[in-house]
Backbone:
């Protein structure tokens, strides 16, 4: 079986009335500490899911597992109707080797709290690298696509600048462009504004809101309650390795069903 | 006996010295290349998850850090040909023996330099590369190595200068490098000051050139747009774009 890493492969039976990403029973233990205890959720094409939750509850771990950056101990991740990260062999499921995992990762974008831009590459080269080194896009074509993506995050005038020459907000916008240019099926954000000075948060949230309006499927771990309320289709409270509450923003903030949600909201409001 | 400027200048421009200096630099360059290759493999071994790889590379580093370079050269030149007939053939010259000997010893030190450069790269770098879908090889060559090289450059420059000087050890296996050239001249003429002074001048020239080369290469790794574009890259206030 061959398939280009660029085009997310459609499962045989998948159509967009079904969840684009489905997580079931996700478990992860570090040493003796159970960090994820059976995470389950669906997200549909074009939806934005905001994930709130206290520090250390396992939100980053959940994202890393979904991005296939770490293996799950148990559970299933299904992207467009196809299970990812594993393959069936003789009735048993085994983790894919690193090279195969790499191909599947290209379908899931990730934006990190600390940007993680490549300091030795200009903004444009940062955005190009995935295209040239993963999708084998020719240099010129990759450059054009990268420039278009920088334009989209409002940074085409900084294309030649290196990360050290950009503000935190600009760096994070380049990081978003870098993930976006791979045309991922879903884009994961791990507290994308937590490392920013307050006055730079807005420009990043604005870019993210723009993506949401363009129909990008996004899971956003964040502490920005106002953003969650305005942009998300669904808000989730994550605590101690499980999803506690999951509801539309108005429901979630105005009429939370769980005591833990009420308690959490009383702290952040 | 006075310092004879004539003899000094005559030696300074003599082909023997030029050739000796060239051999010293050539041995040092090749030894450094060999040391970098072996050192990189050993550094990967030391940082790998496999206990066997860790053990093997640890053993190599332990062994060659302990043994004097002089002894290694003597073993390679005298002992190994007794054990392996291929090394008794003509191609196995003092030059080859010298750069291999110095290279395998130097590799133990380069391994530590490269290892500490590799582990100093922020974990988020590899993570970001992998998240893009890059293979482990691409992550290493496109993301980690370019950053590690910048960190390893200054200590590697030091090692290189050390190697130029250590190449004089190869006199014991009859390589006519720079210092040996001076020594041979001295043995004939007993003009110590003039012959040694000429050697000093050559060492100074070599190390000066290497220092210039090093700072040139380090500038290549500055990672700013300043050197490449004439426009000053001052942070202009945010203008166009989604943000405003
Ligand atoms: N690689 C790891 N090895 C060991 N323990 C880990 C690792 N990654 C995370 N943990 C532990 O798992 C728990 C959850 O961590 P995680 O980073 O997922 O939480 P989080 O919800 O993202 O918190 P924060 O809001 O601080 O980012 C923490 O107790 C952390 O110490
Ligand atoms: Mg986190």
Residues:
């Amino acid at each position: 079986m061959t398939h280009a890493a660029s085009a997310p492969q459609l499962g045989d039976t998948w159509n967009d009335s079904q969840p684009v990403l489905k997580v079931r029973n996700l478990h992860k233990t570090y040493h003796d500490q159970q960090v994820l205890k059976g995470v389950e959720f669906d997200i549909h094409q074009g939806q934005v899911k905001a994930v709130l939750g206290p520090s250390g509850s396992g939100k980053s771990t959940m994202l890393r597992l979904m991005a296939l950056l770490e293996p799950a101990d148990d559970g299933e991740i299904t992207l467009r109707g196809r299970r990812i990260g594993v393959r069936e062999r003789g009735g048993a499921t085994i983790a894919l080797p690193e090279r195969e995992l790499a191909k599947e990762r290209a379908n899931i974008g990730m934006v990190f709290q600390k940007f993680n831009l490549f300091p030795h590459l200009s903004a444009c080269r940062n955005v190009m690298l995935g295209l040239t080194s993963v999708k084998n896009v020719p240099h010129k074509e990759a450059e054009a696509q990268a420039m278009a993506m920088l334009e989209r995050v409002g940074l085409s005038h900084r294309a030649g600048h290196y990360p050290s020459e950009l503000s935190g907000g600009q760096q994070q916008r380049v990081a978003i462009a870098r993930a976006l240019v791979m045309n991922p099926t879903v884009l994961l954000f791990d507290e994308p504004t937590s490392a920013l000075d307050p006055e730079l948060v807005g420009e990043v949230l604005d870019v993210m809101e723009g993506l949401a309006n363009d129909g990008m499927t996004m899971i956003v771990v964040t502490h920005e309650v106002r953003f969650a309320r305005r942009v998300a289709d669904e808000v989730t409270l994550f605590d101690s390795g499980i999803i506690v509450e999951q509801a539309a923003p108005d429901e979630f903030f105005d009429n939370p069903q769980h005591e833990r949600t009420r308690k959490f909201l009383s702290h952040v409001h | 006996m006075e310092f004879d400027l004539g003899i000094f200048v005559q030696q300074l421009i003599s082909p023997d010295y030029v050739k000796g200096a060239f051999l010293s630099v050539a041995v040092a360059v090749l030894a450094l290349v060999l040391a970098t290759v072996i050192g990189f493999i050993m550094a990967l071994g030391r940082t790998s998850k496999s206990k066997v790889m860790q053990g093997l590379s640890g053993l190599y580093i332990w062994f060659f850090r302990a043994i004097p370079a002089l002894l290694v050269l003597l073993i390679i030149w005298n002992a190994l040909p007794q054990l392996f007939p291929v090394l008794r053939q003509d191609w196995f010259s003092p030059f080859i023996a010298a750069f291999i000997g110095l290279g395998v010893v130097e590799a133990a030190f380069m391994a530590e330099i490269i290892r500490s450069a590799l582990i100093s790269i922020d974990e988020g770098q590899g993570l970001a590369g992998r998240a893009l879908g890059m293979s482990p090889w691409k992550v290493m060559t496109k993301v980690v190595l370019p950053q590690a090289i910048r960190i390893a450059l200054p200590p590697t420059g030091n090692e290189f200068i050390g190697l130029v000087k250590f190449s004089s050890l190869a006199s014991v296996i009859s390589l006519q490098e720079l210092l040996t050239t001076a020594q041979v001249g001295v043995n004939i003429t007993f003009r110590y000051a003039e012959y040694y002074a000429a050697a000093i001048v050559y060492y100074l020239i070599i190390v000066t050139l290497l220092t210039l080369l090093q700072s040139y290469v380090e500038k290549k790794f500055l990672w700013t747009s300043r050197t490449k574009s004439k426009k000053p890259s001052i942070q202009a206030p945010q203008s166009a774009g989604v943000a405003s």
User: Anything to note?
Assistant: Chain A touches chain B through 49 residues (CB under 8 Å). Residues A 59-60, 190-191 surround magnesium ion (ligand 2) (CB under 6 Å). Residues 1-8 of chain A have pLDDT under 50 and may be disordered. The longest strand of chain A covers residues 33-43.
